[in-house]
Structure to design on (309 residues):
């Protein structure tokens, strides 16, 4: 059991640093070749923070024949992003939202969550659904770019441009660490599930999901300490959208999943409930402070306890 926990922890560490190097290298290449910070944020950073989930899900589905972990990782990550990470952020710093945010990003997150629930219920987790998810992702990025294109974000004028070779090497290193880390994490997680006598679904919803959400957690804690509430909300809501559309999209293209709806129904409803709960929590007074953050965190902890007991 100690070896399995060590493999799991080692895999999480490799995924974290793999995501860091991928984001840093890709951002450097984008800046070097004149891509705007807005596009970098909507594509490179969004993909980078979700890269550990993508690597873990594809590895679980393709190389380890563990489809439950692949789907549970996405569901569990979305639940953790709102219940755990947003809850912790609210305890650190009150998060304010705009009306535009509530009318645009949040409804789209709820919409894609409903689509995922419907796809699993209909047994439609095949390649056509993967194409649909990726098409929705392209539309979402295009819409955000059009909506925010008139507000370019510039970095410091005197900031030196990174070396293309150095940035390229960071991308390659990030991809390598993600591949190795995902394989080690899934092997360790499957071993932990076997040692503890629990299902792959529970391990995917908790251990794997939280482990692959470490980039979001690190980003949010730093942003909360710097009082950057907009960055926190945008990162978490965007990450949930990206988890469903990008991770499930690519995973289904590579390896269609056949998972009974009954085995993950409760978790899907919990994910949808957390997504919808954002609306009333933010709408009244337009902020999530310590009380509401504590409520989200407590709800998440109750969910995890119920999973195991």
């Amino acid at each position: 059991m100690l070896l399995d926990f060590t493999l799991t922890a080692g895999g999480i560490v490799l995924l974290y640093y793999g995501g860091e190097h991928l984001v840093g290298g890709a951002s450097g290449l984008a800046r070097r070749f004149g891509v705007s910070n807005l596009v970098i944020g909507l594509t490179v950073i969004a993909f980078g923070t979700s890269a550990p989930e993508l690597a873990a899900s594809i590895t679980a589905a393709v190389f380890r024949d563990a489809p439950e972990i692949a789907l549970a990782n996405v569901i569990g990550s979305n639940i953790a992003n709102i219940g755990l990470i947003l809850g912790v952020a609210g305890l650190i710093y009150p998060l304010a939202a705009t009306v535009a945010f509530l009318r645009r990003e949040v409804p789209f997150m709820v919409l894609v969550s409903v689509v995922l629930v419907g796809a699993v219920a209909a047994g439609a987790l095949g390649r056509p659904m993967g194409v649909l998810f990726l098409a929705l992702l392209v539309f979402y990025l295009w819409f955000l770019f059009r909506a925010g294109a008139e507000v370019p974000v510039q970095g410091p004028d005197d900031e030196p441009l990174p070396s293309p070779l150095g940035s390229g090497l960071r991308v390659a290193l990030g991809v390598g660490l993600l591949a190795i880390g995902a394989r080690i994490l899934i092997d360790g997680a499957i071993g932990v599930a076997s040692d503890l006598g629990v299902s792959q679904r529970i391990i995917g919803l908790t251990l794997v999901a939280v482990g692959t959400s470490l980039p979001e957690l690190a980003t949010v804690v730093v942003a909360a300490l710097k009082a950057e509430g907009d960055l926190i909300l945008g990162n978490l809501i965007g990450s949930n959208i990206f988890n469903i559309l990008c991770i499930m999209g690519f995973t289904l293209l590579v390896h269609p999943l056949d998972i009974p709806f009954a085995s993950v129904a409760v978790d899907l409803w919990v994910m949808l409930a957390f997504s919808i709960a954002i609306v009333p929590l933010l709408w009244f007074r337009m902020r999530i402070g310590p009380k509401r953050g504590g409520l989200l965190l407590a709800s998440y902890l109750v969910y995890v306890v119920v999973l195991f007991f």
Observations:
- The beta strands are 95-96, 287-288.
- Residues 149-157 have pLDDT under 50 and may be disordered.
